[in-house]
């Protein structure tokens, strides 16, 4: 398997060392002014994140111009973070986050977007006659390597004792996957919406995997990470960024039709598709994210750090990363102090 989430060891160690040398801001220590810009990696998705982006709330509430960079997988966010090219990664998956923290990439988990659930799953071509796991033998399945979808696909293969000698797994970002689907080059795709929805609309059918995978421990979520040097220097901007997402989430909960209209426009899908896609996700409230069930409070890590540890263990077994560190690495890499401030108002 191609290592879609590995980063050069020397570069990561150097970056991590630089981050470790940064001072922690405390009482009596001056904080820098608001940044001129916030370099943010994002995905085009049918989620409330697109509301805050489209309406300009991230810029307004963070107090800085957002420089947006569209990415096709969390692996791209990890590469950019290790190189110092991104300040915030919006909706990076739990699998690449586990890999990034394992490899010492200098960022910290500051919040959640969602518990993915059925939001990411397998779309198969009707004409491929795939009805059981055994029917995937000899088929071509695409997924973005280094993503949560990739993690789940590998879990699906492992649970069903299928090897990559039997199933051809191809690395494609969502746009490339759609093009390959239209050409008839692939039999299935494991990905998120709107790519998943478009494949289902164009000759596809859902091959549901998420319930068995979740039960087996392959839980996945979308998260928000911030480069440690940036979050330490500009904590108020980070808090404002989280507040902007909280505002968008509140709109989806209070006015789902109006929210879906914005998301549909930003993601390039119909209103019905946008609303259906968002209903598949469990958008955990920011208050609940601070509970022991999820991220927890600073110094009182929640259960989700165990999910990251389990994910890293699996990635190490698959040789996607060299080594899975101790649980404490994921606990220290989760910093909810900004989220606490955002929730407090």
Q: In percent, how much strand structure appears in the residues?
A: 15-25%
How many structural domains does the protein architecture include?
Answer: 2
Q: What is the percent of helical residues?
A: 40-55%
The CATH architecture term of the largest domain is: 3-Layer(aba) Sandwich
Query: Quick check: average pLDDT?
Result: 91
Any idea of the CATH class of the largest domain? Alpha Beta
User: How are strands sequenced across the largest beta sheet?
Assistant: 2-1-3-10-4
Spell out the CATH superfamily of the largest domain: Periplasmic binding protein-like II
Alpha carbon gyration radius: 19 Å
Give the overall shape.
globular
Terminal Cα separation, in Å?
46 Å
Fill in the keyword field for this structure:
D-Maltodextrin-Binding Protein, domain 2; five-stranded mixed beta sheet; disordered N terminus; alpha/beta; 12 strands; single chain; 345 residues
Description:
The chain has 345 residues and is of the alpha/beta class. The protein folds into two domains: 233 residues, Periplasmic binding protein-like II (D-Maltodextrin-Binding Protein, domain 2, 3-Layer(aba) Sandwich); 96 residues, Periplasmic binding protein-like II (D-Maltodextrin-Binding Protein, domain 2, 3-Layer(aba) Sandwich). It contains 17 helices and twelve strands. It has a five-stranded mixed beta sheet, with helices on both faces. Strand 11 and strand 12 form a beta hairpin. The N terminus is likely disordered.
